[in-house]
């Protein structure tokens, strides 16, 4: 008789322990996944508010990049000689992602609102020129996000 078919080998015990280890690993993975999903900061009720918090933040960031106030500010800075012709401004929400998510408020009737500072810089450069207040709102009834910057002097 060969060693592989020897009646003295305990292959069944090893196989059983392997299946127990696999089962325990799957149970642990399921528990960790459930715990993570429950504490997801981006979790939101899409049915009640129209879109998720994550999508709202993305639309807010995109709206700030296309903000007419940013174009007005660029024109003022170019007239004052502080910005060269052809340079564009870039607006980015200043707070850390966790703080942004915690700052999002629910609008009665469905939707989201966010008020936060935005860093203004020349596109392609890391130096921040300054900060302006930024406001974003998603209205569930209209189905769109509106983003605007608050220019100095109430313009």
Question: Topology of this structure?
Answer:
Elements: H1 11-38, H2 46-49, H3 53-65, H4 68-79, E1 89-93, H5 97-103, E2 105-106, E3 111-122, E4 128-139, E5 144-150
Antiparallel strand pairs: 1-3, 2-3, 3-4, 4-5
Describe the protein.
The chain has 155 residues and is of the alpha+beta class. Helix content is 41%, strand content 25%. It is built from 5 helices and 5 strands. Strands 1, 2, 3, 4 and 5 form a 5-stranded antiparallel β-sheet that branches. A hairpin with a 5-residue loop joins β3 and β4. It is elongated, with a radius of gyration of 27 Å.
Provide a compact summary of the structure:
This protein has helices at 11-38, 46-49, 53-65, 68-79, 97-103, and strands at 89-93, 105-106, 111-122, 128-139, 144-150.
Keywords summarizing the entry:
alpha+beta, 5-stranded antiparallel sheet, 155 residues
Alpha carbon gap, first and last residue: 94 Å
Order of helices and strands: HHHHEHEEEE
Number of strands: 5
- Give the overall form: elongated
């Amino acid at each position: 008789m060969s060693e592989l078919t020897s009646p003295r080998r305990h292959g069944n015990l090893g196989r059983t322990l392997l299946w127990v280890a696999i089962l325990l690993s799957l149970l642990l993975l399921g528990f960790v996944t459930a715990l993570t999903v429950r504490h997801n900061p981006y979790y939101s009720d899409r049915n009640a508010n129209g879109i998720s918090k994550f999508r709202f933040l993305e639309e807010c960031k995109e709206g700030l990049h296309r903000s007419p106030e940013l174009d007005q500010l660029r024109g003022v800075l170019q007239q004052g000689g502080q910005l060269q012709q052809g340079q564009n401004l870039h607006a980015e929400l200043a707070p850390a992602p966790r703080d942004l998510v915690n700052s999002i408020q629910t609008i009665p009737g469905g939707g989201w609102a966010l008020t936060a500072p935005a860093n203004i810089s020349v596109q392609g450069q890391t130096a921040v020129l300054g900060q302006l207040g930024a406001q974003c709102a998603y209205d569930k009834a209209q189905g769109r996000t509106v983003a605007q910057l608050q220019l100095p002097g109430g313009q």
